[in-house]
Amino acid sequence: MPTPKVWINGRVVPSEQAVVSVHDRAFRSGEGVFETLRIYGSHPFRAGAHVERAVAGAAAIGLRLDPEVLHRGLREVVAANGDVHAGADSVVRLTASAGEIDPDSYFPGAPASGGGGQPTVVATSHRLRVDASLTERGVRAVCVPLARELPEVKAVSYLVALTARRHAAAHDVEEALLTSPEGTVLEAASANLAVVTGDVLATPPVGSGLLAGVTRAVVLEVAHRAGLRVEQRALHRDELHRCDEAVLTASTREIVPLVEVDGRPVGSGRPGPAAARLLDAYHEEVERERRDGGVTRSTGV
Ligand SMILES: Cc1ncc(COP(=O)(O)O)c(C=O)c1O
Q1: Which pLDDT band holds residue 108 (cuts at 50, 70, 90)?
Q2: What is the pLDDT of residue 88?
Q3: Quick one: how far is CA 86 from the chain centroid?
Q4: Pocket test residue of 53, 128, 130, 190 for ligand 1, highest count of atoms within 8 A of CB
Q5: Which pLDDT belongs to residue 100?
Q6: Ligand 1 binding pocket includes 203 (Cβ within 6 Å)
């Protein structure tokens, strides 16, 4: 397959012509946001919610983004890379940075984000690279004492996630749970977390120091179809060993059972029925949105 084309600042170009300045603020200081959307047979799922989150996250770091530009990049990169998106599940990454800066005027603390310079906006297409067998086998995780900076922003700077992932790899497991000194678990390195006990699905609330995951919001919407009531409250790491099941949620991975934390089983230590029901309900929602078309806006949960 040829290298996918790239959408950059309004133009579709061959990948090697998609060039960002060395003075770009995302390169200089990590000032930027991104979104990873799963594309189901050319349909970007929950595009409205992803774009809304990008615009809100950008605003939180002083960067004004036009949602229409992000929607256009998404549409045009999918259209330009039909061979990537047709037939197989795939991914679009939207990245927006605060743009180029005059290197002489830059100093940390300057109230300069988004002031003057045009944002750099890029959309890229990829085939989905997720180990689907993890949905059947479940993933294992370790708790790591790390917290994300500005957790409500899906920032280009991914140092915490990558450091947490390295920690996981060193323990020969697939995931890392970001855990406070008091033992509160908020989310995984790049996924949200929920536990199921009886007929209750519990997940930490937005505003408690996590990313408001788009998949998390869909799970909360469809949980009742899986026979579950929803509670939004803090989770402690000990609860992971008392609950029946736990799941991780993220756009590319959908809903993945979490079967082991810190070397001890979660529930039975195997993927459970609630995770399977949630995944069915999630897929129904994907199909409903594809059928009905249109862009679903975020529900804000
Ligand atoms: C820290 C973090 N939490 C949660 C998520 C899940 O978000 P979403 O469901 O919108 O993909 C991600 C996605 O990359 C993430 O980076």
Answers
A1: very low
A2: 80
A3: 22
A4: 190
A5: 84
A6: no
Residue 111 confidence (pLDDT): 41
CB-based burial, 110-142: b 16+ in 10 Å, e otherwise: eebbbeebebbbbbbbbeeeeeeebbeebbbbb
| Residue showing tokens 């949980």 | 223
Q: Does residue 250's CB lie within 6 angstroms of at least one atom of ligand 1?
A: yes
- Please state, as a whole number, how many other Cβ atoms lie within 10 Å of the Cβ of residue 56: 16
Please name the residue that has the structure tokens 């770091």.
Answer: 61
Q: What type of residue sits at position 28?
A: R
Ligand 1 lined by 191 (C-beta under 6 Å): yes
**What atom in ligand 1 is closest to the CA of residue 50?**
10
Site to probe by mutation for ligand 1, drawn from 220, 251, 286 as the one with most ligand atoms within 8 Å of Cβ, is: 251
Q: Tally the C-alpha atoms within 13 A of residue 152's C-alpha that lie toward its C-beta.
A: 15
**pLDDT in the model for residue 130:** 80
Percent of the residues in the chain that have a pLDDT greater than 70, as a whole number: 92
Kindly report the backbone phi and psi dihedral angles of residue 231, in degrees, each rounded to the nearest multiple of 5, phi listed first.
-125, 135
Confidence of residue 10 (pLDDT cuts 50, 70, 90): very high
- Please indicate whether residue 113, judged by its CB atom, sits closer than 6 Å to ligand 1: no
Q: At residue 110, does pLDDT exceed 70?
A: no
Ligand 1 atom with the smallest distance to the CA of 53 is 10
Distance from the alpha carbon of residue 62 to the mean position of ligand 1, in angstroms: 21
Q: Which of 83-97, 250-264, 282-296 has the highest mean pLDDT?
A: 250-264
Ligand 1 centroid to 116 CA: how many Å? 30
Q: What DSSP character marks residue 66?
A: -
